[in-house]
């Protein structure tokens, strides 16, 4: 009887957590679209009708680009997991989209790590989180590579004014974090964790070069897709801009936005503020920039998270291996 009661309690808590995460995701989407002080939903719709030339064909193209973006994200995850266990594309899709829904309200999508780990046996969860770190690092590496080149080009040609006080605060923060990490590395507690950490590094080193190459290529293709999608939306809004200038501005925007901690639901606000400044220097109006950023967010995060809510509600804890 006690076993049955514990099982029912565990099942009830699991259902409650799933419902809470889904409701939180929908609430966050609602807040972004209908409580956004930078661009209200009526203003967004007005901008679509006033500035854009979006047709049924362009909607199909935009949706195709978003589906392609997530296809390569799912393939990237499937490829990474294949280093320890085989999962189907459908399983990888459920895990990726479900984790997106669960992490929508967490800073820098950190909840994605725990959400994906819950799809696997407890004995695999540390490795799963490490694989997720490898995948996110690959994406961040591509963003940093293109962004550094793009930002260098942008600074040399458009001379943006930087907030030196903000830069000083960021540098001081990074230095403080570095000193904190060094102090932790010198503690006895960390010394006791060396064996575990060494095992984790050995695990990462065992990932085949073929898998790493596939992951990096998937990250690269994803980056190109959502960058081209951003450029295509600018074109639909009637922005006459040189392709090279547009891509360097877009890459600069993604780089700067990626290094600023934010909750994913406010990610559009962060990107919107950076995009307004960067594109403003090259003559693109604020309403157009905010509308494009909002559409990018809806296509690549809001809609997938709605789909992910279905997979989140269907999630079942893996059976314990005896």
TrEMBL record:
The keyword Cell wall biogenesis/degradation does not apply. Signal peptide: none annotated. It comes from the Bacteria. Keywords: Membrane, Transmembrane, Transmembrane helix. The chain crosses the membrane at residues 12-31, 51-72, 130-155, 167-186, 207-226, 232-256, 288-313. This is Flippase-like domain-containing protein. It comes from Gelidibacter maritimus.
């Amino acid at each position: 009887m006690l076993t049955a009661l514990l099982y029912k309690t565990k099942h009830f808590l699991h259902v409650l957590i799933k419902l809470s995460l889904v409701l939180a995701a929908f609430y966050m989407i609602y807040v972004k679209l209908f409580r956004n002080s930078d661009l209200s939903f009526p203003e967004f719709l007005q901008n679509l009708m006033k500035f854009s030339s979006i047709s049924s064909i362009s909607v199909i193209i935009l949706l195709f680009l978003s589906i392609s973006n997530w296809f390569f994200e799912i393939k990237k995850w499937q490829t990474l997991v294949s280093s320890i266990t085989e999962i189907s594309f459908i399983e990888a899709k459920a895990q990726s989209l479900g984790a997106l829904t669960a992490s929508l309200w967490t800073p820098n999508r950190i909840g994605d790590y725990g959400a994906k780990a819950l799809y696997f046996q407890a004995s695999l969860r540390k490795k799963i989180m490490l694989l997720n770190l490898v995948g996110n690092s690959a994406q961040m590496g591509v963003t940093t590579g293109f962004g550094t080149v793009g930002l260098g080009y942008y600074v040399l040609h458009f001379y943006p004014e930087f907030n030196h006080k903000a830069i000083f605060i960021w540098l001081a923060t990074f230095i403080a974090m570095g000193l904190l990490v060094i102090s932790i590395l010198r503690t006895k507690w960390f010394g006791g964790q060396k064996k575990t950490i060494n095992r984790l590094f050995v695990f990462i080193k065992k990932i085949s070069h073929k898998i790493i190459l596939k992951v990096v290529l998937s990250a690269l293709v994803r980056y190109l897709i959502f960058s081209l999608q951003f450029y295509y939306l600018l074109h639909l809004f009637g922005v006459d801009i040189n392709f090279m200038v547009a891509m360097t501005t877009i890459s600069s925007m993604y780089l700067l936005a990626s290094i600023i901690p934010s909750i994913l639901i406010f990610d559009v606000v962060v990107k919107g503020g950076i995009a307004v400044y960067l594109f403003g220097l090259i003559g693109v109006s604020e309403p157009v920039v905010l509308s494009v950023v909002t559409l990018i967010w809806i296509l690549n995060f809001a809609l997938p998270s709605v789909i992910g809510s279905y997979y989140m509600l269907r999630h079942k804890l893996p059976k314990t291996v005896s």
